[in-house]
Structures are given as structure tokens and as C-alpha cells.
Amino acid sequence: MGQLEHKAAIVTGSSRGIGAEVAKLLAAEGAGVVVNYRQKAPRANKVVSGIEADGGRAVAVGADLTSPEGPAALVDAALESFGSLDVLVLNASGGMETGVEEDYALKLNRDAQVNMLTAAAARMKPGSRVVFVTSHQAHFINTVPTMPEYEPVARSKRAGEDALRARIPELEEKGITLVVVSGDMIEGTVTATLLDRANPGAIEARREEAGRLYSVEEFAAEVARMALADVPTGHTEYVGGSDYLSA
């Protein structure tokens, strides 16, 4: 039996990439997983089918986290499908997409994260864990400059992290812990691809600076590990990018 047997998890933004891999890993530990998508239902359904084929439990739920009803829909799905909510992985992020409103990055990376936490924490029991996924470029934005193309997103994600950390005392009263996972640029993610498109050579340049970059699968394994790790609330787990840690 896995460590999450008879428990349930929500992974936001999990129809592809890091989120999808985290969902698979949590399911492999026994969790019933809510696989969240915004528009691409076929992709999310494929993730669910893969989990079920491996003997796991999962359900795909379409929800826009920036909408008033999105977070509640995910929480309701976890409770209705699996009977509880024990792990919340705040993985969804964005802001570099074309055609979105000017303040979309802040709406998604700060406001939606807080709203999702509020909806989930109201139904989570003592011993539950919240994991916020961010990047070194965002986590260290106040001390280490980043690419101009990414700075608005980085600042919005740092604002989201700060807003979540401000809730730690309230979460502690409920027996819920919050852990942050901060990673260097990850090979194969949408964000890295968009950055490389906006700033050709960005991935290769960062790879040379860092020595190596983690893959989606490697980083997802660290995120999933933090959903179970015996660490104190407020802990930050750093993945890759040792030069950031010494800056």
C-alpha cells in the first residue's frame, strides 16, 4: 500500500507537463487524484486513462481557477469522487500566453492560488499538505534579475507565494502544512519553450550557467516527494540552480 492509500489529491494544471507527472506519481502512492484542466479535456482524460490503466484512481475536472466557481468545483470533485481532500498541489501558472488580458498573470499566479487554497483549506483535515510550485526565477526575483520577457510572470508568482505564506498561521491552526517547491528552468515545459521563443537561446544559455537542467519527470518527482515529506510548514525545497542559492 502507498503512503496516500484512501486519501485524495488535487493537482491544478495537470493535463500535461509537470502537473500530469505529479498526478501520476501521487496516484501511484494510492491517492485518488483530481486531474484539473482549463480547456483541453482530451489531454486530461488521457492522463486519467493512464492512471487507471496502472491501477490508480483519478477523475478529470474542467475548471478555470480564475473564475469564482473554479476552485470550488475541484474541491467538490475530490470529496464526491474520493471522500476527502488531503493533498493540494498548486501547480497551475501562466501569463506568457498571447491574447490574455493585461493582468491575467496576477489573476492566475496570485489571486487564483489564494482562492484555491481558501476553498480547499475549508475542507481539509489536520495532517493535510499544500504544495506550491514555483520557479527560482520567481522565488528569487527580488534579489536576482531574470529575463525581461519573464519578469511580469516572475513577480506575479512571487506575489502568489507571499500571499500563500501569509496564510501559514491560519493553516497551522487547522493542522495543514504549506511547502514551496522552487525549481530552476525545466526542460520541456511550456514556459521554457515560450521563453526560448521570445528570447532565442535562453534555454541553452541557462543550461550552460546551471550545468544542467532538470527534466519534467525529474522535477515532478521532487514535487510529489514534498507532498509526503516530513518537513515543517513554510519549508522551501530547492531543485537545481545552485548558483541561485549562492547569489
TrEMBL record:
InterPro entries per the UniProt record, alphabetical: NAD(P)-bd_dom_sf (IPR036291), SDR_fam (IPR002347)
Keyword Protein biosynthesis: no
Domain of life according to the entry: Bacteria
UniProt keyword annotation of ATP-binding present: no
Keyword line: Oxidoreductase
Listed SUPFAM superfamilies: NAD(P)-binding Rossmann-fold domains (SSF51735)
Similarity remark: Belongs to the short-chain dehydrogenases/reductases (SDR) family.
Classification via PANTHER family: OXIDOREDUCTASE, SHORT-CHAIN DEHYDROGENASE/REDUCTASE FAMILY (AFU_ORTHOLOGUE AFUA_5G02870), SHORT-CHAIN DEHYDROGENASE_REDUCTASE FAMILY PROTEIN
Protein name as it appears in the record: SDR family oxidoreductase
Organism for this UniProt entry: Arthrobacter koreensis
